[in-house]
Amino acid sequence: MYWPKITVVTPTYNRDEYLEETLLSVLNQNYPNLEYIIVDGGSTNPHIFEIIRRYEDKLAWWISEPDSGHAEAIRKGFDRASGEILAWLCSDDTYLPGALLAVGEAFRKYPDADVIYGHYNAIDQNGRIIRNGRVVRYHPLQVLANGNIHQASVFWTKNIYQKAGGNVGGFNLEFTKYSPDSDLYFRFIKAGAKWILLPRTLSTFRIHPDHTTTRETEAVWAHYWKAARTNFPFWTLPGIYQLVCVYTRIRRLILLIAQSDTKNILAKFAQRPLKEQEIL
Question: pTM of the prediction?
Fold first, then answer.
């Protein structure tokens, strides 16, 4: 039976707490046509190299040298990739058992698919599930409105990657630190990618104090919206939709502030349940 070759790239830099768990979650997939690449940004932590060398014989390639950040590391890995399907897995996230087999089977079932994506679990430092991340069937406006696709549960063809520019972080390097995945997905949309939802949980997303999204949430969202505006100016239909979403949230916040019966207005605003059509 033919299985499409999947290339997974893991960028890492001076973070060894969860690295071995990440590596094992990939290598223990038992996927019959896997290419696994690790790109280190020139770490000074020797334990990282002990972990990598422990599994060196199962890796297609790995390197350690200085880079400008994780987007450049991922690009280096993809430049070496020979797989038909591409993905990256950060060094604090994991794949759930059977994830790659499910993805490979989905690409066989939908040969015209450009992107296959699924659900995820948010976990804490100890691996306990704190949120089940559920996404709905793809629509480009939903991607623009919420960006709730978790990168570790997204897999795409090399063909759409090259069509969208063939790099992570885009041509605007300011997106490489905070939102390289969002910028890449926006360029997939512009390239006319066909997205297919695989209705199963594929990965875990670890939330911990040193995680960039946790530590610098405001900067992450600011760059996300900037990437959206760069790819879809406000005078386009997706751009207008972004404005509507922002207006709706601001209006709701104003209405909450006008109410005197709640002490935690901002918390209530941030934690409100999303309607199904908003989740993605």
Answer: 0.77
- Return the closest-CA partner of residue 145 out of 266, 27, 247: 247
Domain assignment present for residue 264? The answer is no
CA-based nearest residue to 26, from 91, 109, 116, 120 = 91
Cβ pair 161, 51 in contact under 8 A: no
237 falls within a domain? no
Give the three-class secondary structure for 237: helix
Q: Which of 41, 24, 25, 31 is nearest to 7 (CA)?
A: 31
CB count in 10 Å sphere of residue 24: 14
Residue 62 lies in a domain: yes
- Do the beta carbons of residue 40 and residue 64 sit within 8 Å? yes
pLDDT in tens, 220-239: 555 555 666 666 655 455 55
Query: For residue 5, what pLDDT band results from cuts at 50, 70 and 90?
Result: very high
Q: 132: domain range?
A: 6-231
Closest CA to 129 of 201, 189, 65, 196: 201
Are the CB atoms for 2 and 197 separated by under 8 Å? Answer: no
Q: Whole-angstrom distance between the N-terminal and C-terminal Cα of the chain? A: 33
CA-to-CA distance for 73 and 264, rounded, in angstroms? Answer: 41
CATH code where residue 160 lies: 3.90.550.10
As a whole number of angstroms, the distance between CA 5 and CA 82 comes to 8
* Nearest CA-CA partner of 185 in 118, 233, 92, 115: 115
- Work out how many domains the chain is built from and give that number: 1
Residue 241 lies in a domain: no
Residue with tokens 């223990």: 28
| CA-based nearest residue to 4, from 80, 60, 78, 84 | 84
- DSSP state at residue 139: -
Q: Given this model, what pLDDT does residue 225 score?
A: 59
Given the structure tokens 């014989």, which residue do they identify? Answer: 57
